[in-house]
């Protein structure tokens, strides 16, 4: 049913109380797009991300005000918070001391090595996980000079150089690495090459991937390619828009590879001229509902008797539409035939009944 995937052995590191790498599940993370200084907006977005299944959240720390607000964000957030830093290391030290579980640094944007060394030593003192986040758009000048373009080889050399620096100079190992480009294939090549040379856990994703449809496609191409080869310990699907969508897309990728499920899978037909119920609206309602449910179950929402009964039978609970009616299947058997206007309510009742009979299919996302 799913491809056989052998995950690449990696070190286990910790972002607060969430492990990444080793035998940990592939962790799903996202980033808030609120101003970090707006505590209520940031916490409300974090809460929505958590409901969607996000396990680690990153917040931007562009200035002193943001780092001052971070303490409260960390205190109130139900999941570990990572501070995202560029350019100024003094902010980094304050962020670590404010209690963030991890920092993401882009070494290409840190000009002063002495400051960076001091920051990394503070991370070590506080056991704050460090992500070395290499980005093709901001490689160090000497690397760019050597490679002429921000190629995957340039990204890999930069990443290896920084990993070696942190390990040898700081003697610190609570590290993960990302090597992102806005070109998915260049991104893939960078991760493939890096993974042959280091066993630190990898945070995978494509940067600046765009909005929901193009961004989902670009991320899925790169992330799936890597995960199929066992590469990737945590992922962020980068999308322009509502970050909760990043989390739903991440789980869709993981579920379709048989790596991890969180929300119900929905089988739905595209509809055609044979459909005699309002299947699109029915589907939308089921999808919205399913985003709030954490269970490894398969639902089917099908338009007519051509493929409807077959798919509905194979699902845990399914609908096969008819003329203004729907037949509901549960565990392969017809349980009800109901008019269209009560179809959704009856369907949800059957799903609830299924989950009561199969509590093992309900998922606790923090395991
Ligand atoms: S299941 Fe029926 S309504 Fe849906 S696409 Fe197939 S033929 Fe059309």
UniProtKB/TrEMBL annotation:
Its cofactor is [4Fe-4S] cluster. Pfam families: GcpE (PF04551), GcpE_C (PF26540). Residues 10-251 form the IspG TIM-barrel domain. Keywords: 4Fe-4S, Iron, Iron-sulfur, Isoprene biosynthesis, Metal-binding, Oxidoreductase. Its EC number is 1.17.7.3. [4Fe-4S] cluster binds at residues 269, 272, 304, 311. One of its GO terms (biological process) is isopentenyl diphosphate biosynthetic process, methylerythritol 4-phosphate pathway. Binds 1 [4Fe-4S] cluster. Residues 265-352 form the IspG C-terminal domain. Pathway: Isoprenoid biosynthesis; isopentenyl diphosphate biosynthesis via DXP pathway; isopentenyl diphosphate from 1-deoxy-D-xylulose 5-phosphate: step 5/6. It is an enzyme of class 1 (oxidoreductase). It catalyses: (2E)-4-hydroxy-3-methylbut-2-enyl diphosphate + oxidized [flavodoxin] + H2O + 2 H(+) = 2-C-methyl-D-erythritol 2,4-cyclic diphosphate + reduced [flavodoxin]. GO terms for molecular function: 4 iron, 4 sulfur cluster binding; 4-hydroxy-3-methylbut-2-en-1-yl diphosphate synthase activity (ferredoxin); 4-hydroxy-3-methylbut-2-enyl-diphosphate synthase activity (flavodoxin); iron ion binding. Converts 2C-methyl-D-erythritol 2,4-cyclodiphosphate (ME-2,4cPP) into 1-hydroxy-2-methyl-2-(E)-butenyl 4-diphosphate. Belongs to the IspG family. This is 4-hydroxy-3-methylbut-2-en-1-yl diphosphate synthase (flavodoxin). The lineage of its organism: Bacteria, Pseudomonadati, Thermodesulfobacteriota, Thermodesulfobacteria, Thermodesulfobacteriales. The gene is ispG.
């Amino acid at each position: 049913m799913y491809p056989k995937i052998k995950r690449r052995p990696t070190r286990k590191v910790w972002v607060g109380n969430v492990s990444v790498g080793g035998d940990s599940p592939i962790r799903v993370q996202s980033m808030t797009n609120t101003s970090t200084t707006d505590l209520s907006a940031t916490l409300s977005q974090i809460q929505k991300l958590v409901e969607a299944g996000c396990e680690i959240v990153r917040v931007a720390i562009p200035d002193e005000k943001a780092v001052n607000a971070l303490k409260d964000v960390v205190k109130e957030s139900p999941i570990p918070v990572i501070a995202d830093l560029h350019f100024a290391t003094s902010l980094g030290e304050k962020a670590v001391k404010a209690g963030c579980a991890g920092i993401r640094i882009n070494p290409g944007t840190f000009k002063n090595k002495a400051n960076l060394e001091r920051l990394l030593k503070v991370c070590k003192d506080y056991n704050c996980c460090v992500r070395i986040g290499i980005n093709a758009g901001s490689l160090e000048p000497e690397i760019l000079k050597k490679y002429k373009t921000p190629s995957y080889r340039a990204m890999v050399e930069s990443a290896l150089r920084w990993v070696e620096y942190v390990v040898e100079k700081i003697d610190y190992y609570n590290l993960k690495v990302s090597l992102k480009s806005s070109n998915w294939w260049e991104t893939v090549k960078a991760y493939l090459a890096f993974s042959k040379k280091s066993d630190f856990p990898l945070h995978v994703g494509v940067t600046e991937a765009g909005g929901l449809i193009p961004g989902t496609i670009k991320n899925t191409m790169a992330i799936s390619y890597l995960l199929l080869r066992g590469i990737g310990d945590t992922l962020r699907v980068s999308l322009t828009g509502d970050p909760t969508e990043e989390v739903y897309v991440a789980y869709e990728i993981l579920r379709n590879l048989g790596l991890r499920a969180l929300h119900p899978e929905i089988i739905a037909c595209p509809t055609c001229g044979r459909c005699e119920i309002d299947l699109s609206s029915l589907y939308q309602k089921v999808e919205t509902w399913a985003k709030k449910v954490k269970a490894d179950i398969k639902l089917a929402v099908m338009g007519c008797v051509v493929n409807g009964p077959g798919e509905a039978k194979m699902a845990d609970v399914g609908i096969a539409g008819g003329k203004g009616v729907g037949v509901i299947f549960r565990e392969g058997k017809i349980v009800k035939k109901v008019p269209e206007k009560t179809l959704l309510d009856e369907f949800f009742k059957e799903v609830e009944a299924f989950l009561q009979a199969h509590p093992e299919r309900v998922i606790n996302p923090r395991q």
